[in-house]
Structure formats: structure tokens, C-alpha cells
Amino acid sequence: MLLHIVARGRIGRGPEAELVDRYLKRIGWPTRVTELPDTGGRMPEAAGPIRTVALDETGLDLPSRDLAASLGRWRDDGAREARFLIGAANGHDEATRAASDLTLGFGRATWPHLLVRAMLAEQLWRATSILAGHPYHREG
Does the CA dihedral 99-1-15-104 come out positive or negative? Predict the structure, then answer.
């Protein structure tokens, strides 16, 4: 299953971009990052059934194991892509949140979008490592 980050705005070539790349390269699943302008732009076409996750400060604060379980369930149910949407400065509109299969938050704090990309990339690495039985994730 493709793990696809669709983010508003450009990350450029800074330390945040290096951190995102570092985590995405560790993932054994196919990954893709699409950058869209802050407004407008065209959402990439989906190749088969997808699950959509909107990252939002009002989203669920899931433990890493629960995110891993969701990814594993979607993969096993035949989803071809899990698409993670990172909004612009004003976040997502209500229609985007309502249409998503999951609204995910990283706590109630508001995070800079560049850090959200890095945090998401790390959580995707962690989730796939949990599913693979890799010792990277430790609880408690």
C-alpha cells in the first residue's frame, strides 16, 4: 500500500526536509510526497481504493500502535493508498475533514507544517516497523 503525503506549501531544502527524507527512506512500503500550493492546485489521481487521513489539531490523538493497526487493516482490506493530507496555515475545511476516513492529530498543540511532515514521516516509519515486528518501537 502506498503511503502518500499530500501537503500544502513547499518544504524546500532545510533540515526538516532532510528529516522527512531520512524517515521515508527507512520505510519498506512505497512512499510518495506531493506538494500543492497553499490554495488551489489539483489533488493527484488515485490508482484504486484509497483511505484518506486529514492531519488536524482537532483530530484523534492515536497511540502509534493504533495508527499501525489502522494501516494494517486498510492494507489487508485492499486499499492501494493511504493518503495523508496536511493543510495550509488555516488547516482543512469542514468538507475535507468530513470526507476523511480518519482525522489525526499530534496532540492539541498547533504545529508548524514543516514539523508536521517530519512527525508524520516518523510515525509512518514507526507504524510500519510495528507491523513488521521490528524492535524500533518500544512502549512503556
Answer: positive
Q: And the C-alpha cell for 16? A: 526538516
Q: Tell me the pLDDT tens digit for each residue of 56-83.
A: 988 999 999 999 999 999 999 999 999 9
CA distance 113 to 128: 22
Q: Which residue has the cell 532532510?
A: 18
